[in-house]
Write a structure and sequence with these properties.
35% of the residues lie in helices and 23% in strands. It is of the alpha+beta class and 859 residues long. A hairpin with a 2-residue loop joins strand 10 and strand 11. The protein is globular and about 105 Å long. Pfam families: PPDK_N.
Length: 859
C-alpha cells in the first residue's frame, strides 16, 4: 500500500476527522446538493494534485458534482436498468479500476426516482461499501436529509466508515460528524461551525441553540421520517383519491403511471394494459396486500389484470361468475434484501459472470434454503398467516420475467402448497420453508438454462411471490377444488379438420390443477375443444377409459401433506363429489366389485359429458377466454378452478393468465401423393405446432424393443447420450427429428426417454411413437408446461400410433438405415443396436393443420 492517509482538501475537516484513511466510505447528509458538491470538489482537487486515480460515478438527474476533466474518469450509469444490473455494473467498474482508486458518487437519494424504495438504496450501499473498502479505495457519497427512513440511515451508518451531517443555516455551514470509524478526539462528534479560519466545535449554548432550533424544521421530529419513500408515495396517492374527482383526474392518471412503473413491471405491453385497466383505487388496493416493496411479478400481474378486465367488462356481469380472491404479494425487493442481509451478494455477483453462471448458482441455491428474514418482514408474514387462519395456501413464484409476452417460464420455478395446519409457530415454519424453496428455485439449472437459451442470462430476474388461498372446499379430511384446469383462447391442437382453432380449448381435471399443467405418468386430463367439447381425440370406449384421469391431487388436512390418490379410493371414501355431473359409472369394474361382494363401493370414469352438455360451463369458458384475448389483443393461457357454492351456482377462480405462446400456421401445405414405399411415417391428426414444411437433415431414432430391454441405468445413459448429441446440433443448418418410443421427457424410464428439456432443445421435431406392448404411449399434452417449452423453442411435435387404422410407420426404413452414431458421438458406441443417428438428404416432412394430414417421406 502506497499510503495510509489522504486529505479531504479542507484543512479544518482534516483536523476534525484526523484525515481520510484508505478504505473510507464518506457519506454526506445534506439539505442541498450544492453543499455536497463543495466538499466533493475540494476532495477531488486535492486528490488530483496528489496524482490519484479519480473516478466519477454519474447516474443522477441533478447537475454534475464534478466538471469534465481529462484527468477524471467519468462513468455514465443508468439506474433504471434495475437494482441488480446497476449494482453489477458498479462492481465491475470497481474491479476493473483496481486498488487505491478515489471515487465520487452522485447523490444516492436520486436513485429513488428509479427504484422508489429506501430499502434498495440501503441494499446498494450495504453491498458496495464493503467492496470499496476491500479494494482499498476512498469514496464520497451524498444523501438528502429527510428523504430517507430512519431504518435506511441506520443501515448506512452501520456500513459506512464516516457519516457527516452538513447543515446550511441562513448561509452558515455546520459540519457534524455522526460516525468516524477507528478515530477519536474529545470534540470530534460535536457540531462544528465553518468559517474562514477553519472549523470550530460548537461549545457555547447560544450557537448550539441556533443549530438545534433548526433541526425540527428539517424533519427530525416529522413522523414521515420513519417512513420509506415508497410509503410516502402511497400516502400521497391516497390523498389524491379523497380529493375532487374531476379536479385531479390528470394527476391521478400520472400517479397511476408512476406506480405502475414501480410495481407492475418494465415490459411496455404489460404496462400499457395496466395503465388502461387499473385506476388509482385499484393500485392502492394492490399495495394494501403487498408485503415489502418493489415489483409484484409477472404471475401476479397476469392474475390481477385478467380479473380486472373481466370485472369491468360492460358486456357480461362476470362478478356473478368469478370467485373472489384475497391474495397477498411479496415484493421483489424482499428477495434482494434476503440475499443482501444474509451475506450472499458476492455469490449473486459471481453467478452473473460467465464462469460462475451455473457453479455459483448451485451454491447460492443451497444457501437460499437456509436464510433468515428481518424482524420487520417476519411480522408482516405473521399478520398475513393470521389473516388466512388454517385455510390452505399456495406460495407461488412471480418473477419479473415470468408470464410475459414471449417468455412464459412455464414450470421453471417452484410453487409450494402450505396445507397450513397446526399451531401458529408450526404454520409459520411451514410458510418460511415454502418461501425459501421458491426463492431457491430461481437458481435451479432448468430455469438458468432457459434464461440463457433466450438471451436473458444478464437480465434482472427478481423473484416476487404470489400467496393465494387455495381455491376449493373441504371433502372430509381432504381439501381441493371441484375442478381445475387450464384454458387457451387459441387451439393449436385441432385433432379433427372441422375443429375451429379460434374457439379455444381446455384441459380439465378433478382436484388440484397440478395434473392439468404437468405431464403425469399414466394419467390424462380431459382435453376439450370449446366448439365441440364432447369430441375426444381418441375414439373408442376402451381408449376413453384408458386415457382418462385415474388419480386426483388433494391436500390431506390430517397428514398436513399433498397427496395423489386413486380416483376409486377417493370415491370409496364417499367424500361428497358431484360425480354424476362429471363422470359415468365404470360398468366393467363395478361388475367385478359386485362379483367380489364388495359393498358400498363404486367405480367411475371421468368424461365431463353432463358438465359440457347440461350446464353453461363451456359457454362461460369460451366467452371468458375470448374477452381476455380481445383485451390482450393476443391469445391467452388461463389457469382456473371451478367450485359450486350451491347445487346450481358455479364459481370460476382465475388463478393465472398470461400471453399464450403459439406457433404460426404456415398457410395451406400441400401434401404430395407418393408411393407407399417412400413414406417414412404418416398420420391423421395427433400433431401440434401448426402446419409444417421442412426438409430433414438428421434423424435420431431409438428402437422401441431394444430400449425396453435396457436396464434402468442404461436407459438413463442413452438419454444422456442423446443430450450430448443435442449439444452439437445447430438448428439453423441441421433440421433434426427425434423419433422415440413413449413419452419423451418421462420421469419413469420404462414409459419413455428420461430426457430433460435441455437434452432436446436443439431438435426441430419430436416424434413420440407408441409401443403399447411395453406400455410406452405418447401423451398429446397440449397446454402442459412441457408443451409450452416446445412452443417457445419452436419444436414441432407429432405422436404416432402404428396400430391405429390409417397410420403408417415404416419400421424397415429405420432398421435398414446406416447408423452414424459412432461418427457423431463415439462415446455412445455401445448403444448402436438401440440408438441410430441417420444422416439424410432426401427426407421431407409436411403437415397441414387444416386437413390434419402429416407425412414424412423420401422425395
Amino acid at each position: 500500500m502506497k499510503f495510509d492517509k489522504a486529505s479531504t482538501g479542507n484543512n479544518g475537516l482534516d483536523e476534525i476527522i484526523n484525515f481520510l484513511r484508505i478504505g473510507d466510505n464518506v457519506v454526506w447528509q445534506v439539505d442541498h446538493i450544492e453543499d455536497y458538491m463543495r466538499y466533493a470538489k475540494a476532495y477531488v482537487k486535492k486528490s488530483l494534485d496528489d496524482n490519484r486515480n479519480i473516478i466519477y460515478m454519474r447516474f443522477a438527474a441533478h447537475p454534475p458534482i464534478l466538471e469534465d476533466n481529462e484527468n477524471i474518469k467519468k462513468y455514465e450509469l443508468d439506474p433504471s436498468i434495475g437494482f441488480e444490473s446497476f449494482t453489477v455494473e458498479v462492481h465491475r467498474i470497481i474491479e476493473n479500476e483496481g486498488l487505491e482508486a478515489f471515487y465520487v458518487f452522485d447523490c444516492l437519494s436520486n436513485l429513488l426516482e428509479a427504484w422508489a424504495t429506501d430499502l434498495m438504496i440501503g441494499n446498494f450501499f450495504q453491498v458496495t461499501c464493503p467492496y470499496l473498502f476491500e479494494m482499498e479505495t476512498i469514496a464520497y457519497f451524498g444523501i438528502i436529509r429527510g428523504n430517507h427512513s430512519f431504518d435506511t440511515i441506520a443501515r448506512i451508518r452501520e456500513t459506512t466508515q464516516l457519516l457527516l451531517d452538513l447543515y446550511n443555516i441562513q448561509g452558515k455551514l455546520y459540519v457534524h460528524p455522526l460516525k468516524v470509524w477507528n478515530r477519536y478526539s474529545p470534540t470530534m462528534f460535536l457540531p462544528h461551525i465553518v468559517d474562514d479560519s477553519g472549523m470550530t466545535p460548537i461549545t457555547s449554548s447560544a450557537e448550539s441553540a441556533i443549530l438545534f432550533q433548526y433541526l425540527p424544521k428539517k424533519g427530525l421530529g416529522n413522523p414521515k421520517r420513519k417512513l420509506d419513500y415508497w410509503d410516502k408515495l402511497f400516502i400521497d396517492a391516497e390523498e389524491l383519491i379523497y380529493t375532487s374527482h374531476n379536479q385531479n383526474k390528470s394527476k391521478k392518471q400520472e400517479m397511476v403511471e408512476q406506480l405502475c412503473r414501480l410495481m407492475i413491471g418494465k415490459e411496455e405491453k404489460v404496462l400499457e394494459m395496466a395503465k388502461k385497466h387499473f385506476d388509482l383505487e385499484d393500485i392502492i388496493s394492490i399495495k394494501s396486500r403487498l408485503i415489502g416493496s418493489g415489483f409484484i411479478g409477472g404471475k401476479t400481474v397476469g392474475m390481477l389484470l385478467a380479473r380486472q378486465i373481466l370485472s369491468k367488462n360492460p358486456q357480461e356481469n362476470w362478478n356473478d361468475v368469478l370467485e373472489a380472491h384475497d391474495s397477498f404479494y411479496i415484493g421483489s425487493d424482499v428477495f434482494y434484501t434476503y440475499i443482501v442481509q444474509n451475506g450472499w451478494w458476492h455469490l449473486r455477483l459471481k453467478q452473473r459472470s460467465k464462469e460462475g453462471y451455473f457453479e455459483a448458482a448451485q451454491i447460492l441455491q443451497e444457501k437460499m434454503k437456509e436464510g433468515i428474514f428481518s424482524e420487520n418482514i417476519k411480522e408482516q408474514f405473521l399478520q398475513m398467516l393470521e389473516y388466512f387462519g388454517q385455510s390452505p395456501i399456495i406460495v407461488r413464484s412471480s418473477s419479473l420475467l415470468e408470464d410475459s409476452f414471449g417468455n412464459a417460464f412455464a414450470g421453471k420455478y417452484d410453487s409450494v402448497f402450505c396445507i397450513n395446519q397446526g399451531s401458529p409457530s408450526e404454520r409459520y415454519k411451514q410458510f418460511e420453508e415454502a418461501l425459501r424453496t421458491v426463492y431457491a428455485s430461481s437458481m435451479n439449472r432448468d430455469a438458468l438454462e432457459y434464461r440463457m437459451k433466450r438471451g436473458l442470462d444478464q437480465s434482472d430476474e427478481q423473484m416476487a411471490i404470489l400467496v393465494q388461498r387455495v381455491s376449493g372446499d373441504y371433502y372430509k379430511k381432504y381439501f381441493f377444488p371441484f375442478l381445475a384446469g387450464v384454458g387457451f383462447s387459441h387451439n393449436s391442437y385441432v385433432w379433427k379438420e372441422h375443429l375451429d382453432p379460434k374457439a379455444g380449448m381446455i384441459r380439465l381435471v378433478l382436484g388440484l390443477g397440478t395434473k392439468a399443467v404437468d405431464r403425469v405418468e399414466g394419467d390424462y386430463p380431459r382435453v376439450a375443444s370449446l366448439d365441440q367439447p364432447t369430441l375426444q381425440p381418441l375414439g373408442n370406449e376402451e381408449d376413453k377409459k384408458k386415457y382418462s384421469q385415474h388419480t386426483v391431487d388433494v391436500l390431506n388436512l390430517e397428514k398436513n401433506t399433498f397427496e395423489s390418490l386413486s380416483l376409486n379410493k377417493l370415491m370409496w371414501e364417499k367424500v361428497g363429489i358431484k360425480m354424476d355431473l362429471i363422470g359415468i359409472p365404470d360398468y366393467e369394474t363395478n361388475k367385478k366389485i359386485k362379483e367380489y361382494n364388495i359393498k358400498e363401493q363404486e367405480a367411475w370414469i371421468l368424461n365431463y359429458e353432463k358438465l359440457f352438455k347440461n350446464t353453461g360451463f363451456i359457454q362461460t369458458m369460451k366467452k371468458m377466454l375470448k374477452a381476455l384475448e380481445d383485451a390482450y389483443t393476443y391469445p391467452v393461457d388461463m389457469e382456473f378452478t371451478v367450485n359450486y357454492i350451491s347445487d346450481e351456482t358455479l364459481r370460476i377462480n382465475v388463478v393465472q393468465c398470461r400471453p399464450l405462446q403459439t406457433k404460426g400456421v404456415v398457410g395451406n401445405v400441400q401434401i404430395p401423393e407418393i408411393e407407399n414405399e417412400q413414406v417414412i411415417f404418416e398420420t391423421k391428426g395427433n400433431f401440434m405446432g401448426g402446419s409444417i414444411d421442412q426438409n430433414i437433415h438428421r434423424i435420431i431414432y431409438v428402437d422401441p424393443k431394444g430400449y425396453s430391454n435396457l436396464s434402468t441405468q442404461d436407459k438413463y445413459a442413452i438419454a444422456n447420450t442423446i443430450g450430448n448429441i443435442n449439444k452439437g446440433i445447430k438448428r439453423d443448418v441441421m433440421t433434426t427429428i427425434l423419433v422415440a418410443p413413449g413419452r419423451i421427457g418421462s420421469s419413469t424410464p420404462s414409459l419413455g426417454l428420461p430426457l430433460k428439456f435441455t437434452d432436446i432443445c436443439n431438435m426441430s421435431i419430436l416424434c413420440e411413437m407408441a409401443y403399447e406392448i411395453m406400455g410406452m404411449v405418447p401423451d398429446l399434452s397440449y397446454g402442459s408446461h412441457f408443451f409450452q417449452d416446445l412452443v417457445e423453442a419452436d419444436i414441432f411435435y407429432v405422436a404416432i400410433f402404428p396400430e391405429m387404422r390409417g397410420i403408417q410407420f415404416n419400421m424397415n426404413y429405420f432398421i435398414e438405415a446406416t447408423n452414424s452414431l459412432v461418427n457423431v458421438f463415439p462415446e455412445g458406441a455401445r448403444f448402436q443396436e438401440v440408438l441410430k443417428v441417420i444422416e439424410v438428404e432426401d427426407i421431407a416432412i409436411k403437415g397441414d393443420i387444416k386437413s390434419q394430414r402429416l407425412r414424412c417421406y423420401k422425395y
